[in-house]
Amino acid sequence: MIWTTLQIAMREIRRHKLRSMLTSLGIILGIMGIVTMTTLGKGGRYFVERQIASLGTNAIFVAPVALGSGPPRNFEQGDIDAIRGDIAGVWAVAGQVTRGATAIFAGENMQTTIEGVGNDYMDIRAIGIEQGRRFTAPEEASGARVCIIGPTIRDTLFWRGEDPIGQQLRVERVPCRVIGVFASRAVGDSNADLDAWILMPVRAVQRRFLGSDGFSAIVIGYDEAYSSDSLQTSLVDLMRERRHIQDGEEIDFDLFDTRRIQETVQSVTAQLTQLVAGIAGISLVVGGIGIMNIMLVSVNERKREIGIRLAVGAKARDIQLQFLTEAVLLCAFGCIVGILMSMAISFGLLSLLEIPFQFDLPAYLASLAVCALIGITFGYFPASKAAQLDPMDVLRQE
């Protein structure tokens, strides 16, 4: 019975191809809008979360700010020690310095950025090692001339296939021995390629490139069980005291919390998805009304067929099931076309933005379920009207 019902429904849909396509247009547009926005939102969220992950999870960055015309006042080792000892919830604190430079190897050179860091910094920012090793404690303490290069440095300067581990790389006039290659860190601020950076011990960069013991930034890793707001308040109070900033005076440093940014991105993405889903939902309702309208027309056109089927023994529920099946199939057809169109649009847009396409099977299945529900909801009245026809009256009129 079910197979016969499906065959008849498909026959009727194929008989009026153009009408079926136009009837499903509202469903197609609604599903296309919802699924496209969901897919783009998921891809964008994945991209942003990957960017935030390159900064570290549950990490606070403290950077000096220039007040007036003077240069920003760098941080000191005492600031790092005070944060580590006085603020609860902090599991690691590390200083950072950076400087632009030219890396040279075997006659090849490229512009890069030297980042003076330690192992604590790498832990906070979750910088993995793809090849080789990290710094040892003696190398950090002495400021040894060793370095960990990024994948872009390896692919550019060691393109002949040399193993970079153990090679002598020259950064400006300072030779350094390559001890590792860190894992890809994606794109950083201002679209900077962090994979084209070189990591060296902080003391090495301070002594050999900057001639200063200060830090251009402090990175703090904290336990997720602690409140970010209270931790930042304690941090501001401590830095005010250490930098001799009175109450009411403007602070000369900024705080950047990766957890707060991640929460904001997730909230904005969810709100945008809900907004577009609401707008697209209106299109689905309009599409459902269109399907109900065309099914009523179909009932009037097929009164003779309905009357004959009832006269030869078909039950009212069989007629009702027939028209409900046609309504659901029309919605399912529109849903499938809408999903395919949204996948094509999403894949094209995400490719242009260089964001990986995320296949979202639950969203597609949920769309099919919603369309089936719309078909049942808006097809019920025409189906009931068809089932209530009197075969004698219908055949006499026809």
Q: What is the count of structural domains?
A: 2
Helix proportion: 55-70%
**How does the major sheet shape up?**
6 strands, mixed, barrel
Average per-residue pLDDT, rounded, comes to 83
Weakly predicted, low-confidence segments:
none
Strand order of the largest sheet: 2-3-8-5-7-6
Broad structural category: alpha+beta
- Sheet-strand content, in percent, reads 15-25%
Describe the model:
It is elongated and about 105 Å long. It has 14 helices and 10 strands. Helix 3 packs antiparallel against helix 13 (361-387), helix 4 (77-86) packs across helix 9 and helix 10 runs parallel beside helix 13. Helices cover 58% and strands 17% of the residues. Strands 2-3-8-5-7-6 form a 6-stranded mixed barrel. The chain folds into 2 domains: 2-51 and 263-397, no CATH class; 74-251, no CATH class.
Looking at this protein, list some descriptive labels.
alpha+beta; 6-stranded mixed β-barrel; single chain; 17% strand; 398 residues; 2 domains
What is the topology?
Elements lengths: L1 H14 L1 H7 L1 H31 L3 E6 L12 H10 L3 E16 L2 E10 L1 H6 L4 E4 L4 H6 L3 E4 L1 H7 L10 E4 L2 E9 L14 E5 H9 L6 E6 L5 H15 L10 E5 H44 L1 H9 L4 H37 L8 H27 L3 H7 L1
Parallel strand pairs: 3-8, 5-7
Antiparallel strand pairs: 1-9, 1-10, 2-3, 2-6, 2-9, 4-7, 5-8, 6-7
Helix pairs in contact: 1-12, 3-10, 3-12, 3-13, 4-9, 10-12, 10-13, 11-14, 12-13
